[in-house]
Design goal:
By secondary structure, the chain is an alpha+beta fold. The protein is built from ten helices and 19 strands. The strands form five sheets. An eight-stranded antiparallel sheet has the order 12-19-14-15-16-17-18-13, covered by helices on one side. Strands 5-6-7-8 form a four-stranded antiparallel sheet. A three-stranded antiparallel sheet has the order 9-10-11, with helices on one face. Strand 16 (433-440) and strand 17 (448-452) form a beta hairpin. The longest helix is centred in the N-terminal third of the chain and has 61 residues, at 128-188. The relative contact order is 0.14.
């Protein structure tokens, strides 16, 4: 009997000691990331029949398990990858937002200075210093375009560097998970229902959480206790002890952009479209680089392309200080139309001689007939009515100034008929035609008129003129090309006025240059604000999910303190049982002696 009591006491003592060890381990790991609180399971030993009934034989520890909630753990991982994604977006978008909104970097002041110099020149178009100022402001504007785009390119380079670094971290975690798979499978013997190495499993789940900071990842448990890990939209990263290594390489169509590839174990390389990578830091970087950043560079480049094309077009319609047809002020960027992100940094000023600015009209009045002394006081070329739609079409079309009706013109006749008189016009030359309707020009030009086609709706031909008064019935006016090589009349700023008017024309879709750039800045700001709101929401979700998981499987010091007392009392009680058994056994031996 004493021996039986002693054995029962020892079993209880061992169980209490094990439970105290587990409790102590829980307390020691209260701050260990990813640690799931552990607990012991125990069962009574098989009883023995004693004639009067079955008598218990003590207790055995059956297992040490971790309090693991697969659902909550998955919730935390999902919340983590979403939070990391938007947090990355915010950090990157703040860079563009701060850059584009800065008055020191903004394109708008440089545009205003360029057109301001033209405004000054329009008051004295023969002034060489004023002409030089226009070219200087053109150079400053091209430098500003290059500066802004250069900083955006630095952001792209920085994003590429972070993408490569993130890929290296993903590969490191994949190797860690594969190594833990091997250790866990070896220790469990492929039996996931038996005893499990809780610490190694905690480490593997923590590695999965760290992986989800970098990219959206899912772990699928296998029958042998290992994880198969998928990233993105189902790309296998880890299988048992095997990993598919991620890598980066230059995109064939754009060497400045890194694309993701898988270096498969068989030696092959598989390209991974960015659309398949979601969540985490990697997803945030890819989305930023190929989304808002690329969009900002494309819009800035489109502005540079359209601006250069339109300024060049109008300057080629006029004549310079020596009476020669105007030449391009900026280099032609139309070849970048399919890849506008590369245009802004390549905007350059071609014109170096201020005399070459075509401030005067390429047409002159050659006389009139009939009427009551009304004369033509000016005639000039302007952008055709369909020009804006052409350069803003998809794909864009960049009309050549050589197709303008005023280019190559041999003559134009304007005839007034009726009372009050209405006018029509015909143009002779390679781009001529007619008859065209003549309608009031509107705006600040008194007695100004412009030519329109007879189509419905009518389209501006691109030629305007001004009369000294109302034409009379039967009166005609004739126009010819400006005499080649002859200095324009003093004060002729007709073509310069058209260049200056471009500042407020809707040549970027349905916006002016300044409004278009402001819209770009506002768009970046809106994307940044949206990302900030999403980031705040995702951080709240992560905090709530983490708290739920911690409440379920985290270490509670209050609970562990209670367990310490419980197991300590159990240990002391079992010690007393053993003491009683020893005393009883000694008494029996003394009686027998």
């Amino acid at each position: 009997m004493g021996s039986n009591i002693f054995s029962i006491g020892v079993s209880g003592l061992n169980a209490a000691q094990t439970a105290l060890a587990v409790t102590g381990n829980n307390i020691a790991n209260v701050s260990t990331p990813g640690y799931n609180v552990q607990y012991v399971t125990q069962a009574g030993r098989s009883p023995q029949y004693q004639g009067f009934g079955f008598l218990g034989q003590g207790v055995d520890i059956t297992n040490v398990l971790r309090t693991y909630d697969k659902f909550l753990s998955g919730q935390v991982q999902t919340a983590q990858t979403n939070s990391s994604y938007y947090d990355t977006q915010v950090k990157q978008l703040n860079q563009i937002n701060n850059l584009m909104a800065s008055t020191d970097v903004s394109i708008i002041p440089a545009l205003q200075d360029f057109y301001g110099a033209m405004q000054t020149l329009s008051q004295q178009p023969d002034s060489i210093p004023s002409r030089q100022t226009v070219l200087n402001m053109a150079q400053a504007l091209s430098t500003k375009f290059a500066t802004v785009d250069g900083q955006l390119q630095q952001m792209q380079s920085g994003a590429n560097g972070q993408i490569k670094s993130t890929v290296d971290s993903i590969n490191s975690l994949a190797s860690q998970i594969a190594s833990l798979n091997t250790q866990i499978a070896a220790l469990t013997g492929g039996n996931q229902l038996g005893s499990q190495p809780n610490t190694l499993m905690d480490q593997r789940d923590q590695a999965m959480l760290e992986l989800n900071k970098l990219v959206s990842a899912k772990a699928v448990p296998q029958s042998d206790g290992t994880y198969t890990v998928y990233i993105g939209n189902g790309q296998t990263l880890v299988t048992n002890a095997q990993t598919n290594t991620l890598a980066t390489q230059p995109l064939p169509t754009d060497p400045n952009t890194l694309q993701l590839v898988f270096n498969n174990p068989n030696g092959t390389v598989t390209a991974i479209p960015n659309s398949l990578i979601t969540g985490g830091q990697l997803g945030g970087l890819l989305n930023f680089r190929d989304g808002p950043l690329l969009q900002a560079r494309q819009q800035l480049g489109t502005l540079a392309i359209n601006f250069a094309a339109t300024v060049n077009y109008q300057n080629q319609l006029g004549v310079d200080n020596g009476g020669v047809a105007g030449q391009p002020i900026f280099n032609d960027l139309s070849s970048y139309a399919s890849n506008p992100q590369n245009a802004a940094s390549n905007l350059q000023v071609l014109m170096t001689d201020p005399n070459k600015l075509a401030t005067a009209s390429n047409m002159v009045s050659t006389g009139g007939a009939g009427g009551s002394g009304v004369t033509m006081s000016g005639v000039w070329a302007s952008l055709p009515g369909g020009y804006s739609g052409s350069i803003n079409s998809v794909p864009p079309v960049f009309p050549s100034s050589t197709t303008h009706p005023s280019v190559g013109m041999t003559g134009m006749t304007i005839t007034a008929t009726g009372s009050p008189a209405t006018m029509t016009a015909t143009i002779t030359g390679p781009n001529g035609g007619g008859p065209y309707n003549v309608v009031p020009l509107g705006g600040s030009v008194s007695n100004g008129f412009k030519l329109q086609t007879t189509a419905v709706p009518p389209v501006d031909v691109g030629i305007s003129f001004q009369l000294s008064g109302a034409p009379a019935n039967g009166q005609t006016f004739t126009v010819g090309p400006a005499p080649a090589g002859t200095k324009p009349p003093p004060g002729d700023n007709s073509n310069l006025r058209e260049l200056l008017a471009q500042q407020n024309l809707k040549l970027m879709g349905n916006q002016s240059y300044g409004s278009y750039y402001s819209t770009l800045v506002a768009s970046v700001g809106n994307q940044t604000n949206t990302a900030q709101l999403q980031s705040a929401a995702m951080k709240t979700n992560l905090k709530q999910a983490s708290e739920s998981l911690s409440n379920t499987s985290g270490v509670s010091l209050d609970q562990e303190a209670a367990n310490l007392i419980k197991y300590q009392q159990s240990y002391q009680a079992c010690s007393k049982v053993i003491q009683v058994a020893q005393t009883t056994f000694s008494s029996i031996l003394n009686l027998m002696g």
